[in-house]
Amino acid sequence: MGPWGSFLTICIILPLSPYTRHKDYLFQKRLALRFPLDSFRFDFRGNHESGGQWIQSGVAQDVQDLVTVVAYLRNTYGYEIDMVVGHSRGSVVGMHWLCTSEEGQRVRAMINVSGRYRMHRIYDSAKAYKEEWDTKGYYEWKVTVARQPVVQRIYPHDLEVFSRWNTAIVWDSFPAHIDVLTVHGLADKTVPPYDAVIYARAFGSRTPGTHNLHLIEEADHNFTNRQDEVVECILEWWDALNQGRLKTGIWMAGVRGKL
Fold first, then answer.
1. What is the mean pLDDT of residues 70-99?
2. What is the reported pTM?
3. Residues sharing a CB contact under 8 Å with residue 44, sequence separation 6 or more, in sequence order
């Protein structure tokens, strides 16, 4: 048992958006402040406060970072992981870890926010890179991280490796007992909302684990001005899980929405 409790929620964060990429961006810190379990947020290598080199194709490195963090929390504090929360690329990493790790077999819940399934759709944004690829051999991706300007390089090979990442692993290897909530904005221009439907198909046929899909109208990839809504949804879903009320389907089924 850890010094502050027996379970820890890990929120894993690494979005693909061109705005921010750090552990306190968007809804993650707000969720941690209100969540009833201890939580741990961290930056993947090459992001914000973590050293190393960030690369577009480094999903496997992100998974290894998560493995390292879980081992540290277990060995240092005696924590077990109860839930994983991921946004965008963080969701992809979290789901892969759950499929491939021993510790993942003991997790109860996964929150998949804006997770990408069709990795090859990363090429949808590649047209913006072509001119610099042709002249420099790489594209300079200028982003703001924690209010500081950062320039990253994206090479053609990065997108090729990224596009081949195997998200289909969830169909056969995702633990059958884990309850999953998928949240996606219908105005997401970075990861198409249909990817959420694919995940619903992959997770919805499992037992005893459940899957709920929550689509937010007019919400973009980063849930601009809608982040509190994401937090409320996760907290309500978590309460339903602990009360044994979850059933696979659309989240809030039977509740009339706004017209």
1. 91
2. 0.87
3. 12, 13, 14, 50, 54, 61, 62, 65, 93
